[in-house]
Amino acid sequence: METQLTINGTQHKLDLDPRTTLLDALRHHLGLTGSKKGCDHGQCGACTVMVNGRRINSCLTLACMHDGDEVTTIEGIGQPDNLSPLQQAFVSEDGFQCGYCTPGQICSATAMLEEIANGWPSHVTGELDASAELTTEEISERMSGNLCRCSAYPNIVEAIRKAAGGGA
Predict the structure, then answer these.
(1) CB neighbours of 68 closer than 8 A, spacing ≥ 6?
(2) Distance separating alpha carbons of residues 128 and 63, to the nearest angstrom
(3) Residue ranges, the chain, pLDDT below 50
(4) CATH of the domain at 56
(5) Which helix (H) or strand (E) is 154 found in, with range?
(6) How far is it, in rounded angstroms, from Cα 135 to Cα 160?
(7) Packing angle between helix 153-163 and helix 102-117, nearest 10 degrees?
(8) Using the 8-state DSSP alphabet, how is residue 28 labeled?
(9) Quick one: angle between helices 85-92 and 102-117, nearest 10?
(10) 65 and 116 share one domain
(11) Same domain for 89 and 60
């Protein structure tokens, strides 16, 4: 099935089996291996990417469902010599240990900060018109779909808070 995707600003025309997940298209057909296959059931968040600005688990969606969509992976957020503020905060706050979950964590946190900027509530926020204060509870709730086997959560929360301008 012919599918056109814009990945990190570059258009790609792919001829894929219609059963190919977005994650497998990224990793095996385009060589973008930053997004990881952790559980392959949408439970760990290692495969998190942004599609049209919204975070999704790329292991749970078919590539052909995103024909014409804009996909941002960790490779599109920053480069080793030009890190995004969030990536830099992960480094300075030691927000990773083994690093396997880090691409999904950073993609999810990038989208989460945009959600907060747009006034999206969470269970912790409580009110639809309330702007979210970046408490540990708020960040933890919003990042609950991303697991870290190494338990670097306190450092991940501090990195997100620092990138958002809340200091560490």
Answers:
(1) 4, 5, 6
(2) 33
(3) 168
(4) 3.10.20.30
(5) helix 153-163
(6) 11
(7) 40
(8) I
(9) 130
(10) no
(11) no
Vertex 38 angle, CA 15 and 30, to 5°: 25
Please say whether the beta carbons of 21 and 63 come within 8 A.
yes
63 and 20 Cβ atoms separated by less than 8 Å:
yes
Residue type, 140: S
In the sheet that holds 2-7, the strands lie side by side as 10-15, 2-7, 70-72, 48-51, 54-57
The count of residues in the chain is: 168
* Residue 24 domain boundaries: 2-73
Residues 54, 60, 63, 64, Cα dihedral to 10°: -100
Closest-CA residue to 32 (of 7, 68, 15): 7
When divided into structural domains, the chain yields a total of 2
pLDDT of amino acid 168: 46
Q: Quickly tell me which residue has 């790329």 as its tokens.
A: 58
